[in-house]
Amino acid sequence: MRIARLVLLAGLVPAAPLPAFAGTASVAVAANFTEAAKEIAAAFAKETDHEVQLSFGATGALYAQVTQGAPFQVFLAADDARPALAVTEGYGVEGSVFTYAVGKLALYSASADVTGGEAALKTETFDKIAIANPETAPYGAAAVEVMEKLGVYEVLKTKIVQGQSIAQAFQFVETGNAELGFVALAQVVNATGGSRWDVPQDLYEPIRQDAVLLKTGADDPAATAFVDFLKTDEAKAIIAKYGYGIDAGA
Amino acid sequence: MDFDGEIGGAIVLTLQLATVTTLLLLLLGIPLGWWLARSKSGAKEIVGTLVSLPIVLPPTVLGFYLLVALGPDGLGGLFGVRTFAFTFEGLVFGSVVFSLPFAVQPIRDAFEAAGERPFEVAATLRASPLDAFLSVGLPLARPGILTGAVLGFAHTVGEFGVVLMIGGNIPGETKVLSIAIFDFVETLRWREAHILSAGMLVFAFAVILTVSVIDRRARRARAGA
To answer: Which CATH number fits domain A105-198: 3.40.50.1000, 3.40.30.10, 2.60.120.330, 3.40.190.10?
Structure first.
């Protein structure tokens, strides 16, 4: 504040007061939704004059922070369990939970050809396969489910390395430390290099990513406006562009 | 009670990692500390600075560089194993780099505190440099070496950022205590997180107390000498 005043006094910038209603929404975002969230936030800022401050992390870690008073107003989780839990535990606003995206899983490799999917998993010519921590990340749980359905989980078990979030699993593959890995389609859908196999939906339960308005943001115009914006066609188009499904159960 | 493999395994693995790391730290740190204390070479401050870098660098910087250095374009590729990340050996390598300053600094200080005099005397008595190092230097620096070992061990036990970035969370291989705590917190299993965290708290207290006691005894011995 003091610095801002000094700058104004010095006449370095023209005094351009912000519109009185503009605020900043603080949003916690599951790691897999990073890129889409940035684009949505930019579109939202343009549309409404509100700003958005995004904090990225693993859904489990973010939720643990929420329960300990983290100043988030909106929570975009990677699953539908944490937002529901937020409401039952009294951190979320009742009735505010909705599915903003349906996550898709992809098998991805920076170097090897994995377009064959199931066949690639069964060649076993690789040392390490990266997944997100199945205990904390829905994409990790989905990856385990896929391997189990394909009957390769027992064999591959010893080759699994876990990232704390889907972002780290992707990073293990991208740096070549793991030859392949299960990542979020959103992370690789717009990538140029590497090869990927879009895992058929019948191999895993849909990853419903729910959003919830937290009580800290219940009366905040910026936070509620952001939640509403997520439901607009403009936001949905961005979400779809990043390889997510839109409707619940899709 | 959840004292199954999950908690026990993480504790055992952490102790193994810290023990192996400490032995390597001593093997590396004693000659290095000696050289840093006694060399007249101009390169010495450069080497000393390199060794001390991990004190200032965020663990994420080390973790990132290690991930690349251990991977297919680094050591892993060189040895034809693809990567050393996600292995116990990889963690040992990372831990040695990360904890080196904490072991080297007290050892270097101890050799420096001994001063020139004992070694001049040893030389007059026709002791070879190796002989002087073994029978004069080492005994004089013993408290410093002990402190270095304790701090190196403790710092390895307390490591988190580097392991998070190169570990891959493999039970029995890379899932150490600090990572297990992180997982417990994330999955809202705070009971287990509390057990391990309280244990770490007691451990850290004991370590610092031990170092202080060693330090005080060394100073008293020196004053008495």
So the answer is: 3.40.190.10
